[in-house]
């Protein structure tokens, strides 16, 4: 398998930014626990942060460009890379459900301009609805007289929540229909009734802002319902009749987005592996480099193999998604599950190889380990991925 010249060029360009701009700043922004606006702006200025860049990566007919770009950025540093790529979550939400007019109006506003870059947030999770997204309590009510939607509720864990220019909020329109009674809404910049909640202090990804968001009689124009009212009414009517048609579409959306998240985990794992490999060649104990011990060299061999396995699963699922193949065995979930678990395992091994140094903040692998852990939790926990795969391969509703 060989990458095309264009794919190699983009990969090397993104790698250069990761190596020369992101990496040198990684420790500082991890310690500051703040959104690295100057780096987002630099990414915007070179055309790496913005909807045109995303469209270019997405246009690659093999589907590999987006995971390659993500792997390189997260190889640089996961916290900063998430500050750059977090907006993509909201953009994907608009892309999945929006009309062409809604995409044209809102996607550019998610990014702002190179002189004044913005970020966007995708708010689904709630304090009582994490893995179980069918039980959202945030409600959206239609005020027909004013052609406005009124949203009330509380969102949890939103990447860029409260600091975003555009918030995409998933809310329940007909709670008794579960996930099928939900819809996604744009909350335009400066809308009254949306207030930032507490910013969370996290174990890892500390340069990425994660916060609660409160919606208190938050009114948005009718045109902010993604997909439009007519489509929603049709969908609700079908759901009320108990027809199953669109459930498949929601599952496919997850299978499409999960490989990109897996690619991020691969980037973190590769960074830790490369660091540990070099360290093992330099560090001398008992009169020889520690890599000359099979215990260390075999660990590195396994790390390399696991990373390559994870990447191949990510690339397979990305290629399947882009070329319209059916995810019969939940291959998208498989790729995210494997990559997330590999990232945790590899970064832990890297700390072991660095010994005491691996446990200190003087060396980057402990940060990589902290960053990696979230990949078995967000975008569907490892248990939920296994559930999805088990259901797909068995055709049985496993609980
Ligand atoms: C850094 C970070 C960023 C995030 N960004 C966003 C964001 O931008 N937007 C957003 O909407 N959300 C975001 N999230 C939320 C994230 O998606 C949820 O944390 C995740 O879905 C898990 O939900 P939960 O935390 O409520 O855990 P729970 O659902 O309470 O799960 C707790 C444990 O129970 C297990 N479990 C639950 N149900 C089952 C089951 N049926 N079978 C077996 N095991 C089960 C889980 O696997 C897990 O181990 C973010 C989270 C973090 C940590």
Automatic annotation (TrEMBL):
InterPro entries: Acyl-CoA_DH_CS, Acyl-CoA_Oxase/DH_mid-dom, Acyl-CoA_Oxase/DH_mid-dom_sf, AcylCo_DH-like_C, AcylCo_DH/oxidase_C, AcylCoA_DH/ox_N, AcylCoA_DH/ox_N_sf, AcylCoA_DH/oxidase_NM_dom_sf. The keyword Phosphoprotein does not apply. It comes from the Bacteria. Keywords: FAD, Flavoprotein, Oxidoreductase. Gene3D superfamilies: Acyl-CoA dehydrogenase/oxidase, N-terminal domain, Butyryl-CoA Dehydrogenase, subunit A, domain 2, Butyryl-CoA Dehydrogenase, subunit A, domain 3. GO terms for molecular function: acyl-CoA dehydrogenase activity; flavin adenine dinucleotide binding. PROSITE patterns: ACYL_COA_DH_1, ACYL_COA_DH_2. SUPFAM superfamilies: Acyl-CoA dehydrogenase C-terminal domain-like, Acyl-CoA dehydrogenase NM domain-like. Residues 249-393 form the Acyl-CoA dehydrogenase/oxidase C-terminal domain. Belongs to the acyl-CoA dehydrogenase family. This is Acyl-CoA dehydrogenase. It comes from Thermoleophilum album. The lineage of its organism: Bacteria, Bacillati, Actinomycetota, Thermoleophilia, Thermoleophilales.
């Amino acid at each position: 398998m060989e990458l095309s010249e264009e794919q190699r060029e983009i990969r090397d360009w993104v790698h250069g930014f990761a190596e020369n701009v992101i990496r040198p700043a990684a420790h500082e922004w991890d310690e500051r626990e703040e959104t690295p606006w100057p780096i987002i702006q630099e990414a915007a200025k070179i055309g790496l942060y913005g909807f045109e860049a995303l469209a270019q990566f997405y246009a690659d007919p093999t589907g590999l460009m987006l995971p390659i770009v993500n792997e390189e950025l997260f190889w640089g540093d996961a916290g900063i890379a998430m500050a750059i790529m977090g907006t993509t979550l909201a953009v994907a939400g608009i892309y999945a459900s929006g009309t062409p007019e809604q995409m044209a109006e809102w996607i550019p506003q998610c990014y702002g301009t190179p002189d004044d870059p913005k970020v966007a947030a995708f708010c689904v999770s709630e304090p009582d609805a994490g893995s179980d997204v069918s039980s959202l309590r945030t409600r959206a009510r239609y005020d027909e007289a004013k052609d406005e939607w009124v949203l009330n509720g509380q969102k949890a864990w939103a990447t860029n929540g409260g600091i975003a220019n555009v918030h995409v909020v998933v809310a329940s329109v007909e709670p008794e229909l579960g996930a099928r009674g939900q819809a996604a809404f744009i909350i335009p910049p400066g809308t009254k009734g949306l207030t930032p909640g507490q910013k969370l202090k996290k174990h890892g990804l500390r340069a990425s802002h994660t916060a609660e968001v409160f919606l208190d009689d938050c009114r948005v124009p009718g045109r902010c319902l993604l997909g439009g009212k007519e489509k929603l009414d049709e969908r609700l009517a079908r759901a009320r009749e108990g027809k199953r048609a669109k459930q498949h579409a929601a599952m496919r959306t997850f299978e499409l987005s999960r490989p990109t998240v897996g690619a991020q985990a691969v980037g973190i794992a590769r960074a830790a592996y490369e660091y540990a490999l070099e360290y093992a060649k330099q560090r001398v104990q008992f009169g020889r480099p520690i890599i000359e011990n099979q215990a260390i060299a075999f660990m590195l061999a396994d790390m390399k193999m696991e990373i390559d396995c994870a990447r191949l699963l990510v690339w397979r699922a990305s290629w399947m998604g882009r070329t319209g193949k059916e995810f019969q065995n939940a291959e998208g979930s498989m790729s995210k599950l494997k990559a997330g678990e590999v990232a945790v395992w590899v970064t832990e091994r890297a700390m072991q190889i660095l010994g005491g140094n691996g446990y200190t903040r003087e060396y980057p692998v402990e940060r990589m380990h902290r960053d990696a852990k979230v990949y078995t939790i967000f975008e569907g926990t490892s248990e939920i991925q296994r559930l999805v795969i088990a259901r797909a391969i068995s055709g049985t509703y496993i609980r």
